Amino acid sequence: MSLDGKVAIVTGSGRGLGLAYSQELARRGASVVVNDVDEQTAADAVASIEAAGGKAVAVVAPVGPTETARKLVAAAVESFGRLDILVTNAGVLRDTVLWKMSDDDFDTVVNVHLRGTFTCVREAVTYMREHEVAGRIVCIGSPTGQRGNFGQTNYAAAKAGIVGMVRTWALELKRAGITVNAVIPVAATAMTATVPYFAAAVEADAAGEAMPAFFRHDLGFGTSDDVAGLIAYLASDAAAGVTGQAIGIGGDRLQVWSHPEAVATAYRDGGWSYDALDADFTAEFGGQLQTVGETFPPLPDGLQR
């Protein structure tokens, strides 16, 4: 698989998952526009790509505003002559429970994740459609957006919204030959490093050691590099028939998430009044109510911290 001659933008790519995505795209032959809010971090990311023989430039700007989206596309075209791939990875966290979450906590996270994805994709596909580029859009989601997570109202809303936009854009861009997919990564990051349950895996990754098989196989929890291959695949010509999907990856596990579907249906002549619901709801649906959040099995002996 080669991305020779392709040009990619990866937002939030100065470190962590975003950096791994950029490095893998460059290793496959793409020229990359790196993005971060910190100038030195962005410069270091570019240097790491160039040291491995790749091509990259940096745009230092916060994702969210339309101005940043325009800068990113302009940098791709001015530096490398075109734009083929966009990976929207930039994000921030402001975790707290609902009753303590401020307007700023909510707006900051939604602005970067949700609005930033919208503005960057809008700018990228405007270029792709105008220049008849059968482009690739990869938007980064999260298990939190699929299942919910305690203390992450803002993040859950943004990540769920991204998957909703991906499904819509796949419909709108099909005729142009532009694919749009969401990737749901499960990997050692700054966020998972704070969770005691993952401590043994995070510590192994930080030490350059293999993660215990329990994490990689049973939980589908791995490294940033484990996710990067899927990003490159979805950015390639090989994935031309894959669009509108939410694909989970982590460790040794690859998943396709289902679109929301009704799990139980009941009909009643004349409709469902309060009295009818009171009488029949539990009988009809009590065994079909869905769980929320994620649950994990107990850690095996020797992996507790």
TrEMBL record:
Q: Name one Pfam family in it.
A: adh_short
Has the keyword Oxidoreductase been applied to this entry? yes
SUPFAM superfamilies referenced in this protein's UniProt entry, alphabetically = NAD(P)-binding Rossmann-fold domains
Which segments does the entry list as coiled coil? none
Q: Does the keyword Oxidoreductase apply?
A: yes
Task: Fetch the InterPro entries from UniProt.
Answer: KR_dom (IPR057326), NAD(P)-bd_dom_sf (IPR036291), Peroxisomal_Beta-Oxidation (IPR051687), Sc_DH/Rdtase_CS (IPR020904), SDR_fam (IPR002347)
Domain Ketoreductase, by residue range, is 6-194
The organism's superkingdom is given as Bacteria
Protein keywords: Oxidoreductase
UniProt lists the family membership as follows: Belongs to the short-chain dehydrogenases/reductases (SDR) family.
User: What name has this protein been given in UniProt?
Assistant: SDR family oxidoreductase
UniProt organism field? Microbacterium pumilum
